[in-house]
Each structure stands twice: as C-alpha cells, then as structure tokens.
Design goal:
By secondary structure, the protein is an all-alpha fold. The chain has 17 helices and no strands. It has one domain: Growth Hormone, Chain: A (Up-down Bundle). The relative contact order is 0.17.
C-alpha cells in the first residue's frame, strides 16, 4: 500500500473534493453573501466581527474534539469512518445554506458552523492517513499533490459558480442571489462524489487489535492522557506545534477573511471573487513548484521562505488602494499558500509516531483551529475598535514573525529519532 500510485491519487482526490468548500463557501461566497444578503447590520466592521465569531465557534468545537477523536480513531482503526462521518456533516451543513433567506444571518451562521466543523474535522482523519500511504521519500510530494489537486478542483467548481454569479441568465437562473444559493448545492454534491475514491481505494492499516467503539473510547481516552503527559518528552513535536500554531493563524485568517477585508475597504464583489479565482489556478502549479524548491533547500528553509512571503503580503494588504493591487496580492498569496500548508503537514508526519498518526494529527489540527479562534476575531476586533480594517489585517503580521522565530528551534533529525524512541517505549499503551 505504501507509495501505491492508486492509493496516493485516491487520497489526494479528497483534497479535490473538500477544497470546494474552502474556495466557494469559506473564502468566497459566504463572506460576500453574509455581508450583503444575510446580515442585517449596515456596519461593515460589525458584520466582520460576526463572521469572525462564527469562524471561532467552529474552530473551538473542532479544537476541543480533535485529539480525543484522533485517539479513538487510532485505537479502533476508524480513521476512514470518522472521515466520512464528518464529511457527511459538512456536506449537509453546506447544502442547507440553500434554504437561508435574506436577513436570516443567525441561521446562516448556524449552518456555516456545522459545515465548517465537518470540513475541519474530516481533515484530521484525512491528514492522519498520509503516513500510511506514503514513505519518507514520497511524503512531501504526496502532501503537495493533495493541496495542488485541491486548488485545481476547488478552482474549477468555483469558476463555474463565479460564472453563474456574474451571468445568471446564461444558466437560466433568475438573479445572482439565487446563483450563490445554488452554488452551495453544487459544493455539497462535488464534495460527496469525489469523496468516494478515498473510501474505495485507500486501505487503512490496523495498528491495534480490533475493538468495539465503547472500548475504543475508553482506550482512546487513556491514550490521549498518556500522550499529554508524555508530550514533554517529544520536545521537537511540541516546539513545532507552537510555531505552527502561530504562523498558520495568519494563513487561516487571510484565507477566511481576505474577501471580507476587500469588501470593507470598498472593492467590488466581482473583483474580489475574480481575485480569489486567480488564487486557485496560480496555486496549483505553485504548490508543486514549492515542493521542488523544498527538495533543493530543505523543508524547514522552504517554510521559512513562505513565512517571510506571508509577512510581506500582510503588510502589502494593509496598503492596497486600487483593485488591481488586490490581483497582485492574490498572485502573491497563491505562490506561498499551498507550499506552507503542504510542507507543514509533511514535516509534522516525519516527527510523530506513525502508529498514532490520528491522535497526533488531532493535536496538530487542534492547534491549527485554536489559531483560527484568535486570528479572525482579532482582525475583526482591531478593525471595529479603530474603525480601520487596514489595521485589522496588519495586526496578524506579528504571528508570522513569532512563528518563524520559534521554528528556528525545531531540529528535524532529532525529531525523527525521538519519535522512534517514544514509540518503542510506549508500544503497549
């Protein structure tokens, strides 16, 4: 199964499937529709605050559940089962956005939170399958392939949805508002259909004896407590997670809030959507190129490059004046977004015990979601207090800088040695 082309491609297609939610819903139409259709306030900074809180609630929920669910999945060999459970939750939440009428912002927030929980939680178990399908030599490529396919897949559907939004009559749709609501249905269908390959062609290895779900819960809880107690011995993992927590906060905030920010400073919706579409298609080759770049200079230096790039992007974002500036911003984001995400995922896979991948990816995603708890509302709050959304987006620059400084202390070789030693000492847990 390791390094099987069929398994690698089937695994990567789940990124193709669920990235439609990231692009069309999370980054694209939901912020626009929330501000212009569902929200009942005339204040752009207040609606940004509401949107930031919605993202935080979803992230808090996932962050609280992630390590526990990961531990259960490891014990019961249930990674794929949990993946599909949360994927189904995300699909239902996304499709339900169709029903939300104008002014019903509370209901929109509820379905968005449900969909986001499904999306983020399914990724825990998706990520945890990575070490079991790709060897050390293939893991960076496989992770990058997943993100690259995610960008192109999510981008293709987003392109169709954008055309529906800009030219509804061409598709026999009454108006743009209906087009956006239909787009939520298309995302749900796309997500469901392209989730099938990972279920069919990716085989989950059995790390433990088959046990019941009740015993899995009990054993998972014990395993989780053990890992919490022992995490101090996995010092490289702990250091990396702190660094990741900080810099991915900035990345997630830009993904979730960029369109909202552009709207707040007066750019047209069509220009913002076009810029977001540009990100998807530039990010596809850029992610693969960044993987090649990593193979030349090393994965850690490559992540440094992305952090510096994002810091520059954030400063530039606070200064943009013209809509064409936003297009430049989109291209710059696309150059680094897939690279920093894919390489962080594969670097982490190198320093954790493979047999406990779901549990450790639970911690990984927990910290990633805790970052999203802080970033979006911080951006919204700074903008609300100062009355200046430019200062809001500028406030996240410090997170990239702090994350980069802590990443300097991560020794990859030492991390691999400690992970192997930890597993041998705790094989009976």
């Amino acid at each position: 199964m390791i390094d099987s082309k069929k398994s690698i491609f089937a695994w990567s297609l789940y990124d193709w499937a669920n990235s439609a939610f990231s692009t069309t819903v999370m980054a694209g139409f939901f912020p626009v529709f929330f501000k212009e259709y569902w929200s009942t306030t005339d204040s752009v900074t207040l609606s940004t605050w509401y949107l930031g809180l919605a993202n935080s609630v979803a992230s808090i929920t996932v962050a609280a559940l992630a390590p526990f669910l990961g531990a259960i999945a490891d014990r019961g060999s249930a990674k794929k089962k949990f993946l599909m459970l949360f994927a189904f939750l995300g699909i239902i939440g996304t499709g339900s956005l169709w029903m939300v009428k104008q002014g019903q912002w509370q209901l929109a927030v509820l379905f968005y939170i449900i969909a986001s929980i499904g999306h983020m939680s399914s990724n825990i178990f998706y990520d945890s399958l990575l070490p079991s399908i790709a060897s050390k030599d293939k893991i960076d490529f496989t992770s990058s392939l997943g993100f690259a396919l995610g960008y192109i897949g999510g981008g293709l559907l987003f392109l169709v949805n954008v055309l529906m939004y800009l030219n509804p009559s061409m598709f026999g749709i009454i108006d743009s508002a209906i087009a956006i609501r239909i787009s939520f249905i298309t995302v749900a269908l796309w997500w469901g259909i392209f989730s099938l390959p990972i279920m069919i062609f990716v085989k989950e290895p059995v790390n433990y004896s088959k046990i019941s779900i009740t015993k899995a819960v009990s054993a998972g809880w014990s395993q989780l407590l053990s890992t919490v107690r022992e995490i101090k011995h996995l010092k490289v993992v702990a250091t990396f997670l702190v660094a990741y927590w900080l810099y991915i906060d900035g990345v997630d905030t830009i993904i979730r809030m960029a369109v909202d920010y552009g709207t707040s400073i007066g750019f047209t919706t069509s220009s913002l959507i076009t810029a977001l579409l540009l990100v998807q298609f530039v990010a596809f080759p850029a992610t693969l190129v960044f993987n090649w770049y990593s193979s030349k200079i090393g994965i850690k230096k490559a992540i440094y490059t992305a952090i510096i790039g994002y810091s520059t992007i954030t400063i530039f974002a606070s200064l943009v004046k013209e809509e064409w500036h936003f297009y430049i911003l989109a291209i710059l984001i696309a150059c680094f977004q897939g690279g920093i995400q894919s390489l962080s995922r594969s670097m982490y896979a190198r320093i954790i015990p493979v047999e406990r991948a779901a549990e450790f990816y639970g911690f990984y995603n927990m910290l990633g979601k805790f970052a999203a708890i802080i970033g979006p509302p911080m951006m919204g709050y700074v903008g609300l207090v100062t009355g200046n959304p430019r200062l809001g987006i500028l406030s996240i620059t410090i997170l990239f800088i702090s994350g980069g400084l802590i990443l300097r202390k991560v020794d990859l070789d030492e991390g691999e040695k400690i992970a192997k030693s930890y597993l041998s000492k705790n094989k009976d847990l």
